[in-house]
Design goal:
206 residues; Endonuclease III, domain 1; mainly alpha
């Protein structure tokens, strides 16, 4: 891929430093129950964390258990999560996911990737972000991770699964769960495409 592991790690640490200059909470963070982490992450797809977090907070205030969420009426969920993109489809996924977790997993979220991606509304990125938040060795590939990884030469691919494989090969396993939150925080800290690219070029050429 044209970049060595040590240089990539230095770049990752530089991105972490730049992204930590602002306090940014991500959608998967700071929830008190694994199921809340999962549901919030489902809601966050194609939606800004600044919108997802307060919307998820409102949802969990109204439905404070998976059991209640599993029995919810879809119209009631839609009213609460309307601020997030694709709220109609996500409302179905949330209720169906809660039902499966209650019925098949005794209300516990499985900590296995293959089991997670069987759940309604859960794809590779959601499963990886969820597991990473709970300390697993996983890399969630979203638009920030994809864009920055390509700019820095960590990957030449645009396919989510191929990028994931490239990054797993590039970084030691102990750094995997740093990648997504580090790159997302950097991406959210520098919203100007021009400024973001200037910084990435500086980091790449050091």
């Amino acid at each position: 891929m044209g970049i060595d592991r040590e240089k990539a790690l230095r770049q990752l640490m530089e991105l972490k430093k730049l992204g930590s200059l602002k306090e940014i909470r991500l959608a998967a963070e700071e929830w008190d129950k694994p199921w809340k982490i999962l549901i919030s992450t489902i809601m966050s797809a194609r939606t800004r964390d600044e919108v997802t977090i307060p919307t998820a907070t409102n949802l969990f205030r109204e439905y404070n258990s998976l059991g209640k969420l599993a029995k919810a009426e879809i119209g009631d969920i839609q009213k609460i999560i309307k601020p997030v993109n694709f709220y109609k489809n996500k409302s179905k996924s949330i209720i169906n996911c809660a039902k499966v977790l209650v019925r098949n997993y005794n209300g516990e979220v499985p900590l296995d990737f293959e089991e997670l991606v069987k759940l309604p509304g859960v794809g590779r990125k959601t499963a990886n972000v969820f597991l990473s938040e709970l300390g697993g060795d996983n890399i969630g590939i979203d638009t920030h991770v994809s864009y920055i990884s390509q700019k820095l030469g960590w990957t030449k691919h645009k396919d989510q699964k191929k990028i994931e494989g490239d990054l797993e090969n590039l970084f030691l396993r102990k750094y995997w769960n740093m990648v997504n939150p580090t790159l997302v925080r950097f991406g959210k800290s520098y919203t100007s495409r021009k400024r973001k690219n200037e910084l990435l070029d500086e980091i790449k050429n050091r």
